[in-house]
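ok new one. same drill as before - structure tokens go in, u give me an amino acid for every spot. 863 of them this time. try not to just spam alanines like last time pls lmao
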């Protein structure tokens, strides 16, 4: 009984869990699928050892196995029209072998002449030399002493130089004794000798010591006019289209030839056969496969097949959707198979790797928002916007990247038109990444980036304002910057299969909803496409940064008295009503959680001297009654040492109730207008940075104290309803839980809140006392010592979880129907989803581009 495993079309002698290595397994699977695999056999590792330890016994087994191949190929090993063999390593792991494949075993002094008759001298002797070269290389891998190695090298060099029959024979003559003489005359000796060399090479490394060897018949795509070689993928590996993608090379030995033609142009019979094989293989492995084939004198042979690790996410999804439609896989299989993070590849442009090959490359940094972006860098929002307009007018490339140490709310307008943002301060939950994610832009942070006046220094490379850079921020790898201009592959949502996949995911979503963080109609529409069940966070402060509004907002916050402030607010109120009208209309029937203003007021003021100068000039032009001195004085007063813990959120509402009053009125007026139009608006008013129940009570129910009358949200709703003379709309009032005090006070806060939304960005910041913007100054030191295993602004930390759980429990004790959501950046991180269910939350709210990822993570958890 042979210990070698034979394979050929429709048969293999493999038994149980025999270790035949990855290559052998690929061949055997083709055999077992009844595909026309070039026949051969696998010598398992113990057989390889036997060839060295007991050559006589091994030779018998080799003769037996070669005999089987001869029968299928109807050729003789060592005969007239000789069967030739190929020997390759079949490693136990799917790794690249360091040993050369040895082709054309069986070419000897005698057979080479016979082959030359059929194929011409050039080919026959060229391949004979190639065989000897591969044998010499394999001998070198096996480890040899100095003198022996020199001999082998000298022979190898001589053969490399020889190009004709005569020079090849001369080179052999000159070094004939370097290899055993039987090697030139006896095909079986050749085969045994090569396996022995492989055995010696395997023992050199623990990764190869258990490798097997595969022996396979050679077939020739260059035999005649009816011959070719080629490869194909069973689906298109970039677009995922259900078509064969590949090439064939007429009259060529393999696919390294330069005469490639699209696979679809191959002769129709072969095209049909390859198509059928592709489908069968794909159905078996339930994924895209790669196939190598040879057509020898019109007979089609498969040589190898394998998995395709570098297919695009789109290709993976579309192939699985096709497989599901063919009933090969279930919907659950589809959900299980796709890694959530890979979806971001579909939503963002991806880098064409070939386009950056020659560019200087700088790896590392913090991934802020996934994707790839190319553009000219600008170091201020103003310079970017100016350059953008100029480029637009001149019809030039408008791709730009905003590069700044950190960004502020006033820079959002530049981020909106840029491709990406590069910053040096802060991290994942800082302004630039948060805004970039919400707008579908690319962002990364490089703490070592140095900003000089008009120059950015990146790892020693100087980049001038206006120079191109290319940023690649993959989901599962470190970000990379290339100095220069690469090119991108732009995704098409409609062609990607993602929306179809989202419908399948929706069937497994269970009872945790995904809402969207959205404040622009465009984002709300995208969120609906992804089946978002509402808006969970509309950050209203983002709405005031539009060029047409920012100055009015500034005049409002700098106003000397309530009367002036109210007058300007009345004007802004019209814009806000339109904003809310649009959002509520797009999200008709679904909850829209509108967070009232939450930002330290001074963030709205110009950040540098030039900006301030322009603003003062504009104020004068607009005749708003604010002098230069008043502007400077009031701006100065507004500066805070620690703005994140300063005058923001509900605190602004307590000091300037007219601001929330304007926003609240705008919400209800938009709501009632829609109601009269037959729509079903569901506004949810959310109050940020609450620390105790009394603050919330005032804002919700109102309060009169001498001189100050804070109208409650409920009062305003009643007023607006009376004006519209309409049945009440369904609305709710709730709060963010983003301070530890609020979490611990949650039972009493719940008396005034219909819902809680956990703002885990601020909650992490305030629980751990680490600033979301400054934390990268020490994060790398902490990770080095294993003191913080994950980025706390991405992965929920234990004490934050404890606070969330406590607040959820206490809140629901008072109000069992309390709706609970989470709208911090943590909601889009698949690692947090288990906890979200465990804590009993009803939804997570994430940026529109994070919705598919969060939904898939939830669906996977529900499998
Ligand atoms: C939060 O703090 O988690 C949150 C969502 O609010 P913001 O990021 O706007 O502070
Ligand atoms: Mg917050």
């Amino acid at each position: 009984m042979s210990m070698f495993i034979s394979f050929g079309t429709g048969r293999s002698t493999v038994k149980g869990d025999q270790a035949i290595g990855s290559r052998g397994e690929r061949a055997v699977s083709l055999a077992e699928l009844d595909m026309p695999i070039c026949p051969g056999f696998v010598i398992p590792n113990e057989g390889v050892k036997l060839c060295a330890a007991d050559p006589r016994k091994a030779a018998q087994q080799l003769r037996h196995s070669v005999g089987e191949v001869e029968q299928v190929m109807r050729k003789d090993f060592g005969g007239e029209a000789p069967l030739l063999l190929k020997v390759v390593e079949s490693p136990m792991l799917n790794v690249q072998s360091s040993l050369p494949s040895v082709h054309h075993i069986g070419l000897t002094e005698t057979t080479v002449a016979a082959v030359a008759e059929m194929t011409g001298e050039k080919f026959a002797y060229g391949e004979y030399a190639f065989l000897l070269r591969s044998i010499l290389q394999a001998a070198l891998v096996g480890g040899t002493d100095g003198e022996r190695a020199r001999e082998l090298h000298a022979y190898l060099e001589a053969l490399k130089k020889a190009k004709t029959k005569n020079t090849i024979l001369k080179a052999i003559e000159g070094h004939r004794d370097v290899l055993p003489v039987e090697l030139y005359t006896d095909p079986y000796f050749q085969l045994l000798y090569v396996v022995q060399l492989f055995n010696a090479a395997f023992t050199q490394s623990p990764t190869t010591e258990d490798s097997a060897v595969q022996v396979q018949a050679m077939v020739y795509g260059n035999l005649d006019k009816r011959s070719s070689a080629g490869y194909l993928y069973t689906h298109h590996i970039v677009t995922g289209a259900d078509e064969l993608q590949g090439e064939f090379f007429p009259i060529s030995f393999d696919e390294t030839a330069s005469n490639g033609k699209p696979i679809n142009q191959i002769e129709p019979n072969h095209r049909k056969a390859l198509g059928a094989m592709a489908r069968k293989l794909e159905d078996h492995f339930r994924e895209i496969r790669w196939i190598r084939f040879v057509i020898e004198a019109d007979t089609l042979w498969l040589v190898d097949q394998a998995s395709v690790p570098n297919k695009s996410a789109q290709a993976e999804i579309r192939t699985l959707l096709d497989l599901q439609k063919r009933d090969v896989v279930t919907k659950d299989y589809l959900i299980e198979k796709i890694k959530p993070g890979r979806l971001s590849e579909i939503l963002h442009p991806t880098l064409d790797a070939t386009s950056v090959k020659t560019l200087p490359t700088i790896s590392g940094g913090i991934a802020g928002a996934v994707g790839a972006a190319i553009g000219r860098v600008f170091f201020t929002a103003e310079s970017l916007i100016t350059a953008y307009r100029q480029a637009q007018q001149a019809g030039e490339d408008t791709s730009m990247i905003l590069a700044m140490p950190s960004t502020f709310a006033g820079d959002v307008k530049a981020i909106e038109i840029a491709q990406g943002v590069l910053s040096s301060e802060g991290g994942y939950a800082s302004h630039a990444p948060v805004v970039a994610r919400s707008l579908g832009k690319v962002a990364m942070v490089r703490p070592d980036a140095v900003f000089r006046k008009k120059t950015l220094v990146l790892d020693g490379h100087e980049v001038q304002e206006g120079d191109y850079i290319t940023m690649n921020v993959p989901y599962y790898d470190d970000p990379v910057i290339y100095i220069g201009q690469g090119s991108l592959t732009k995704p098409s949502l409609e062609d990607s299969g993602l929306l179809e996949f989202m419908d399948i995911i929706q069937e497994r979503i269970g009872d945790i909803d995904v809402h969207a963080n959205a404040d622009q109609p465009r984002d709300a529409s995208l969120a609906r496409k992804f089946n978002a069940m509402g808006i969970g966070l509309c950050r209203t402060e983002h709405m005031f940064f539009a060029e047409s509004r920012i100055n009015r907002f500034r005049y409002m916050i700098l106003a000397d008295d309530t009367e002036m402030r109210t007058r300007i607010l009345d004007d802004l109120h019209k814009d806000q009503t339109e904003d809310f009208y649009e959002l509520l209309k797009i999200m008709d029937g679904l909850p829209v959680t509108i967070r009232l203003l939450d930002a330290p007021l001074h963030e709205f003021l110009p950040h540098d001297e030039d900006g301030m100068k322009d603003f003062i000039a504009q104020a004068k032009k607009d005749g708003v009654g604010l002098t230069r001195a008043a502007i400077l004085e009031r701006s100065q007063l507004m500066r805070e040492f620690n703005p994140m813990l300063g005058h923001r959120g509900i605190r602004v509402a307590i000091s300037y109730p007219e601001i929330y009053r304007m926003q609240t009125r705008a919400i209800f007026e938009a709501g009632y207008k829609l109601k009269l139009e037959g729509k079903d608006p569901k506004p949810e008013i959310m109050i940020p940075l609450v620390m105790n129940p009394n603050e919330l009570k005032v804002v919700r129910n109102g309060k009169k104290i001498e001189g100050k009358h804070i109208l409650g949200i409920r009062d305003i709703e009643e007023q607006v309803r009376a004006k519209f003379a309409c049945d009440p709309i369904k609305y709710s009032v709730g709060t963010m839980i983003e301070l530890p005090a609020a979490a611990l006070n949650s039972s009493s806060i719940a008396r005034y809140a219909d819902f809680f939304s956990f703002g885990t960005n601020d909650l992490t910041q305030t629980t751990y006392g680490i600033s979301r913007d400054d934390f990268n100054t020490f994060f790398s030191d902490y990770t080095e010592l294993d003191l913080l295993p994950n980025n706390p602004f991405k992965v929920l930390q234990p004490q934050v979880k404890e606070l969330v759980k406590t607040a959820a429990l206490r809140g629901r004790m008072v109000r069992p129907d309390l709706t609970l959501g989470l709208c911090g950046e943590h909601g889009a991180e698949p690692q947090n989803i288990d906890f979200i269910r465990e804590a009993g939350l009803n939804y997570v709210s994430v940026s529109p581009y994070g919705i598919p990822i969060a939904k898939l993570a939830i669906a996977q958890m529900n499998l």
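The chain has a mean pLDDT of 93. and btw The CA atoms of residues 699 and 836 lie 29 Å apart.
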